[in-house]
Amino acid sequence: MQQIKYLLCALVFVLVTQQVFACDACGCSATGNGIGLLNQSNKNFVAIQYTLLHFRGTDSALNTSNADDYFHQTQVRARFRLNKRLNLTANIPYKSNIRQGESPVRTSGLGDISLSLNAMLVKKSMEKSAFRWDLSGGIEMPTGAYQHNAQDGAQPNGFNIGTGSWNVLLQNVFTFQYQNFGSRFILSGKAHTENEALYRFGNQLATGLQVFWRKESTIGTIVPFAGVYSEFIGQDELYSYPEISTGGKAWYVNAGLQYTKNNIVFGVQGYLPLQQNYAGNTTENLYRINTSFAFLF
């Protein structure tokens, strides 16, 4: 049981940083928000996370070529335990979107705040192995700025800081551990509603499969991990009609490393695309980087 406890605590970074990214550059409303992201230790936590996405392509609305789009997000995430099986997670993001090219664009501000209720449905521990199933559901509130005229030439619609709509979040996390090795499968989704401008961002579905290994030492616990990640984004709609150059799908390989010492968790992970098709192949994601620092209490 002590081994299992240490391993679940060490998974904080992996779980805190897993998210539905989607494609800002092609107008798919990259959330960057955790969809019921779970810390599988028995403690509360406060975390600070930084995410960078780099896209390159052609914007059909502005007729720019070879534009480089950088999507920076810094977010504060906190989890508060309600009882042995339930906890509440809050996420507060700050976004900075930058386009470099013939028609530079820059937007920044507070993003859409989300709240999620997380439930541990199954937890089974055996002598050398353990299995756990966590389910999370929540809402995303329209606290970020949204401009209805973004596609009239002022900026790409995907550069909005917020969606302007109330959205539904859902995530399943399945974790299996055998001694110091383990695997984790995540299935998460986000459903957008129509905002006041009658614009609706595409719904999102993401899956992830990772394997990890725990190594304890006198200086702390190290957990390297690697896996694959996929995302599928539906087309945006305006007045219930599909918007061109939106939506897409992609497969990624990702790997990372996290370090735990007492109640401090730090980690980093990166994503590289294996196959992608965003906005009718008018843009591509070059890489994604994630760093996180968490304090357990």
What's a quick, concise take on this entry?
By secondary structure, the chain is mainly beta. The protein has helices spanning 2-10, 12-17; strands spanning 45-59, 64-81, 86-100, 105-110, 114-125, 129-140, 167-178, 181-192, 199-200, 204-213, 215-217, 220-233, 237-238, 241-242, 248-261, 264-278, 283-296.
Can you describe this structure?
The chain is mainly beta and 297 residues long. The chain has one domain: Lipocalin (Beta Barrel), CATH 2.40.128.130. Helix content is 5%, strand content 60%. It contains two helices and 17 strands. A twelve-stranded antiparallel beta barrel has the order 1-2-3-5-6-7-8-10-12-15-16-17. A three-stranded antiparallel beta sheet has the order 9-13-14, with no helix packed on it. Strand 7 and strand 8 form a beta hairpin. The protein is globular and about 60 Å long. The protein starts with a helix and ends with a strand. 46% of the residues are buried. Residues 6-18 and 21-39 have low confidence and may be disordered.
Shape: globular
Q: Would you tell me the overall average pLDDT?
A: 85
Report strand order across the widest sheet.
1-2-3-5-6-7-8-10-12-15-16-17
Order of helices and strands: HHEEEEEEEEEEEEEEEEE
CATH H-tier superfamily: Autotransporter beta-domain
Low-pLDDT runs of 5+ residues are 6-18, 21-39
CATH architecture: Beta Barrel
Number of domains: 1
